[in-house]
């Protein structure tokens, strides 16, 4: 049986600081393959190479991973400052319309870290350039030192809305997550519901209200140890169920056409 396909939007990178390339983390690809049971397909964050409508006909779901560069503030009506850091305008040009079209079609979409922020911006929301500079907020960035295990270690709790989407999904109102981000939601976009917060008030979990399909985002990185982590696995499993359902519906339409 052919596996459904999940498109993973790539990040621009330079190999040996010289050769332009598109990349996706192996732990992301493994989480999709192992937990959702889908085939991960690297999608270049290159608007010159990707037609969004064509892509949505090929893929059964879209995964928006984290990435070093940030969404450019012009995408939410603000001027660029030094605090905003580096950008990837080409990924913006692919990811933002992808979110809007997935939501409109009911096609499954899951955003993580930068992908979480892209979902908010795509729906008209705004971002803070640096969470740790806000009064009363913690430093949510990746620890500068230590092993990969130490960098992705669980660092703070996230509390979900009582009876909300994530509470039902996780079977718990409070979970422990890692944290490796600098930016975060300032104003929630239209239909973006903040369903989970860190102890300092930073939004950590969102869904799109009245979306006809799976449309969730998290600020942490659930791809780390996704097959075994009690928080990561149900998130990817739910995404996988939605992707399989979309693929089955598409197959049924083909058979009856």
Key features?
257 residues, alpha/beta, Rossmann fold, two-stranded antiparallel sheet, 22% strand
Structure explained in plain terms:
By secondary structure, this protein is of the alpha/beta class. It has one domain: Rossmann fold, CATH 3.40.50. Helix content is 31%, strand content 22%. Strands 4-1-5-6-13-12-11-8-9 form a nine-stranded mixed beta sheet, sandwiched between helices. Strand 2 and strand 3 form a beta hairpin. Helix 1 packs across helix 7 (232-256) and helix 3 (89-105) packs across helix 4 (114-122). The radius of gyration is 17 Å and the shape is globular. The two termini are 20 Å apart. The mean pLDDT is 95.
- Number of structurally distinct domains: 1
Tell me the helix content.
Answer: 25-40%
Count the E strands: 13
Please give the alpha-carbon distance between the first and last residues: 20 Å
The stretches of 5 or more residues where confidence is low (pLDDT under 50) are none
Shape: globular
> Mean pLDDT, rounded to whole units?
95
Characterize the largest beta sheet: strand count, sense, and whether it forms a barrel: 9 strands, mixed
Topology as H/E string?
EEEHEHEHEHEHEHEEEEEH
> What structural category arises from helix and sheet content?
alpha/beta
Short structural summary:
This protein is an alpha/beta fold and 257 residues long. The protein has seven helices and 13 strands. The chain has one domain (5-256): 3-Layer(aba) Sandwich (Rossmann fold).
């Amino acid at each position: 049986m052919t596996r459904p396909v999940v498109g993973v939007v790539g990040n621009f990178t330079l190999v040996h600081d010289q050769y332009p390339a598109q990349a996706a983390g192996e732990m992301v690809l493994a989480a999709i393959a192992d937990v959702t049971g889908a085939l991960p397909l690297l999608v270049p964050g290159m608007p010159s190479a990707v037609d969004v409508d064509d892509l949505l006909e090929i893929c059964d779901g879209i995964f928006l991973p984290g990435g070093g560069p940030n969404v450019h503030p012009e995408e939410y009506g603000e001027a660029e400052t030094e605090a905003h850091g580096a950008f990837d305008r080409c990924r913006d040009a692919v990811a933002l319309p992808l979110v809007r079209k997935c939501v409109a079609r009911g096609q499954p979409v899951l955003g993580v870290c930068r992908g979480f922020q892209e979902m908010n911006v795509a729906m008209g929301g705004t971002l803070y350039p640096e969470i740790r500079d806000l009064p009363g907020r913690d430093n949510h960035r990746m620890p500068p030192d230590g092993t990969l295990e130490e960098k992705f270690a669980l660092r703070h709790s996230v509390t979900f809305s009582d009876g909300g989407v994530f509470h039902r999904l996780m079977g718990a109102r409070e979970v422990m997550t890692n944290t490796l981000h600098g930016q975060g939601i300032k104003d929630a976009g239209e239909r973006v519901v903040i369903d989970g917060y860190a102890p300092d008030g930073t939004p950590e979990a969102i869904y799109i209200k009245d979306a006809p399909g799976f449309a969730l985002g998290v600020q942490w990185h659930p791809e780390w140890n996704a097959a075994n982590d009690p928080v990561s696995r149900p998130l990817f499993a739910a995404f996988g169920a939605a992707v399989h359902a979309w693929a089955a519906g598409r197959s049924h339409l083909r058979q009856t056409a």
